[in-house]
Amino acid sequence: MQTASFTDQMNRKISIPFPPKRIISLVPSQTELLFDLGLENEVIAITKFCVHPIDQCKLKSKIGGTKKFNMDLIRSLKPDLIIGNKEENDKDQVEQLMLEFNVWMSDINDLNSALEMITGVGELTGRERQATEMRRQIEVNFANLNLLNFGKATRIAYLIWKNPFMLAGQNTFIADLIHRSGWVNAVKDDRYPEMTLEEIKDSKPDLIFLSSEPYPFKDKHIAEFKQSCPQAEVMIVDGEMFSWYGSRLLKATSYLQTLFTKQG
């Protein structure tokens, strides 16, 4: 079998049997991408958090979560390629996998790096044409979204966790999607800072987004924020549309536009 070399988004070079026939995905959004690229036969195992597409995911072996893998099961499956992510997967476990298998890692912090991941995975798996077309469509969708929304300067506080409250700050993928939607991130700190209700109020958000994941905010949580931040509109939002950086981006822009038209 022929081999080919590729460089991942952590600037690591790997050589794999090409095209790979036994792929394990360690990240839900990248699992969805692999299926949407037509690799349902090549994907042999996924994590228990990989849920889209549901009809395909329920048929695949589960190697554990995104932070804790069943190493013995992975060894028994004999993958020729494992695809993970720097932020979502546990560093020590990934490094252990790298000692035994071909591991390609993504490193996503904005839309551009997500698009590079999509085309990179396409090249890696022999689906370059499909990935290039997917990237082109996503770029068109976001360009159209920008034209519709920019100039409004609505300030957003985007919560990802409760007890303690954690928000999406600067230099995150979520922050980039907020910006590209024509909004302003009210949180000035980098990454995912912890904030009190008073600090959230002091950031002067016009809109407070309570994400459906990773913490499953529900309608019952809205009243708490409305009481503390009466100046802000509060709503539950679909966390997958803000944080999944694979083929879910094809659907994200229409969802973001729906939120934009709802505000106020």
Please describe what this structure looks like.
Helices cover 41% and strands 19% of the residues. The strands form 3 sheets. The chain has a 5-stranded parallel β-sheet with strand order 5-4-3-6-7, sandwiched between helices. It starts with a strand and ends with a helix. With 264 residues, it is α/β, with parallel strands linked by helices. It has helices at residues 28-36, 54-57, 71-77, 91-100, 111-125, 128-149, 173-180, 197-202, 222-228, 239-243, 249-262, and strands spanning 3-7, 13-17, 23-25, 43-46, 61-62, 81-85, 103-106, 155-161, 166-167, 184-185, 207-211, 233-237. The longest helix has 22 residues, at 128-149. It contains 11 helices and 12 strands. The chain has 2 domains: 3-107, Rossmann fold, CATH 3.40.50; 148-262, Rossmann fold (3-Layer(aba) Sandwich), CATH 3.40.50. Helix 6 runs parallel beside helix 11.
> What's the mean pLDDT score?
94
Largest sheet, spatial ordering of strands: 5-4-3-6-7
> Unreliable segments (pLDDT under 50, ≥5 consecutive)?
none
Query: What proportion of the residues is helical, as a percent range?
Result: 40-55%
CATH H-level homologous superfamily name of the largest domain: Nitrogenase molybdenum iron protein domain
- CATH architectural designation of the largest domain: 3-Layer(aba) Sandwich
- The strand count comes to 12
Query: In total, how many domains does the architecture comprise?
Result: 2
> How would you characterize the largest beta sheet?
5 strands, parallel
CATH topology of the largest domain: Rossmann fold
Order of helices and strands: EEEHEHEHEHEHHEEHEHEHEHH
The Cα radius of gyration reads 19 Å
**Percentage of residues in DSSP E strands:** 15-25%
**Helix-strand makeup class:** alpha/beta
Q: What gap, in angstroms, lies between the N and C termini? A: 59 Å
